Amino acid sequence: MELVHRAPRPEHPLDLLPEYVSGRLDPDRAAVVRRHLDLCVECKLQLAGWREVAAAARDAYSPAAVALPEALRRRVVEAVAQASESREKRRPLRSRLAWLGRLIAAQVPLARREIWPASTVVMAIGAAVSLIADHGGGAAAGTALALLAPLAAALGMAMIYGQENDPALELALATPTSPRLVLVARLAVVLTWDLILAGAATAALAVVNGPAIFLPLVSLWLGPMLLLSCLTLLLSLFISTSLAIVAAAMIWIVRALEVAGPSRSIDLGGLTSMADAIWQTSPLGLIAALCLLVAAVALVPYREPLTAHPGI
Amino acid sequence: MNGGPLDDVALMARLARGDLDAVQALYGRFGRPLYAYVKSLVDDEGLAEEVVQDTFVAAWRSGASFENRSSLTTWLFGIARRQARDRMRRSRPETGTDELLEGLPAADPDPEAAALASASRAELAVALKRLPDADREVIVLSFAYELSGPEIAEVLGVPEGTVKSRLFKARQRLRAQLVERDG
C-alpha cells in the first residue's frame, strides 16, 4: 500500500488532512473530509498517522510544554527601552548640523576677548604699512601685510584653548562634547576671522595697487599663516600660551630675516630649500600645517601642560 | 495569541511610539509562543532568549510599518525566524541541515502505512528531533501552533504549495526513520 508518492485521487482528500487535524480547515471542506473518512479506511489510517505526528509535535513543541524563563520579560522590556534610548541619541543629520552650528557660534563669546581686536589691529597695521610703503605698486607691494598676517593669526591661535585663556573651559569640558570638537570649533572660528581680515586687507591693497596683486599676495601670506598658526596652537596646548606667542614670533622673525637677508650666513643646502618650500603656500607647506593640526587635535584630550609641573 | 485586528494595529502603533506598556502587553500575549517557537529552531535556551529579545526590538523598530496585512502572529513569527537564522549563521557557519539530510535514509516509498500510527509517542519525538530543520519547522508550526497553510507560508516566506510538499516530505522521513528502526 503506497500512499504518499502516488498522486492523491480526487476522492482521497490527503492534502487536506494536516489542516483537518490542526482544526484549521474551513467548515465546508472539513465536512467533505469527514464524510470521506466515514467511508475510506485508507484515509482513516493516514489520519491516524497525522494525529500521532501532531500529538508528538504538541508534546514536544507546544508553547505550554516549554518552561518560560522568568527573567525574559524583564530582559525584553529592557532591551526595547535601551534601543529606544539609543535611537533618541541618534539625531538626524540636519539637527546634528544645526547643533554643530550652535557649538561653533557658542565659541565666539567663550574665546578670549582680546583675540578679536588684537588680530584686527595687527592686520590693520600690516595693511596700512603696506599701503603707505608700497604705494604705487611693484613687487614689494603688501610685504608688510604678508609679514604681519601670519603673526596676527598665530597670536590668536595661541589663545584659543586652555585654562590659562578660558575660565569656562573646565565647565565646557565637563559636558558630553569632546575636547577635540571644542578645539576644532574654536580653531574654525578664529581662523575664519583671520582669513576674513587678511583677505579684506589684501583686497584693499588690490584696489589701490591693481587687481593683479591679489592672488600673488594671498599666496604670500596664506601658507605661512596656516603653518605658523598650527605650530603655535600645538605649542600653546603643550607648553603655554605666552611661550607659544614668543616662540611663534621668534620663528617668524628668523624666517623673515632669512628670506629678506642678502645672503645666507650658513649654507645648509637641501635643508634650506626644504624650509623655503614648507614656509610657502605650497602642497608641502599645507601638508606640514595639516600634520601639526592633526597632532594638536589628536593629543588635546591627553594634554597636560608642562608648565603645570614646577621647575619647568 | 489572538487579539482583534484593530487591537493589533493599535498595539503596534503604541509599540512604535516606544510605549513600554505596549511592550509588556505584547510580551504577555506572545512571549511564551515566541520563546517556544525560537527554542524549537535553535535548540538552546540562552540563544533562544537572545533571539526573543532581538525579535521584540525588531518588532518595536518596524512596529509603525505593521499594517495588519498579515496577522500579528505570523508577522512576529516571521521576524523571530529571521532573527534566529541570523544568530545561528553568526554562531555557527552552517546549520547542518545538509549533513542531517545525508544521514537520513533516502525517501523511498515505504509500504508500511501504519508505521506512524503504531509508533510510540517517545519514538516519534526522537524522530521529530532528528528531522532536518526545514521539515521539523512545518510540522511544529502546523501542529504545535496550529497555523494554517497560508499562515505558515507567510512565516517561512515560501509559497503555500511548498509548505504542503514539505509537510508530506517530513511525514515520509519520519516514517522512514521509524521503519528503519523496526527493520
Structural commentary:
- The complex is a heterodimer of chains A (312) and B (183).
- Chain A is mainly alpha-helical.
- Chain A contains 13 helices and no strands.
- Chain A has helices at 17-22, 27-39, 41-61, 72-89, 93-110, 115-133, 143-158, 169-173, 179-209, 214-238, 241-260, 270-278, 283-299.
- In chain A, helix 5 (93-110) crosses helix 9 (179-209), helix 6 packs parallel to helix 9 (179-209) and helix 10 runs parallel beside helix 13 (283-299).
- Chain A starts with 16 loop residues before the first helix and ends in a 13-residue tail after the last helix.
- Residues 1-5 and 305-312 of chain A have low confidence and may be disordered.
- By secondary structure, chain B is mostly helical.
- In chain B, helix 1 crosses helix 2 (20-42) and helix 2 (20-42) packs across helix 3.
- Chain B has helices at 5-16, 20-42, 45-61, 72-91, 97-103, 115-118, 121-130, 133-144, 149-156, 160-182.
- Chain B has two domains: 5-91, RNA polymerase sigma factor, region 2, helix turn helix motif (Rna Polymerase Sigma Factor, Chain: A, Orthogonal Bundle), CATH 1.10.1740.10; 97-182, Arc Repressor Mutant, subunit A (Orthogonal Bundle).
- At the A-B interface, helix 1, helix 3 and helix 4 of A face helix 2, helix 3, helix 6, helix 7 and helix 8 of B.
Task: Output the keywords.
heterodimer, A: 312 residues, mainly alpha, 13 helices, 70% helix, 0% strand, rod-shaped, disordered C terminus, B: 183 residues, Rna Polymerase Sigma Factor, Chain: A, Arc Repressor Mutant, subunit A, 10 helices, elongated
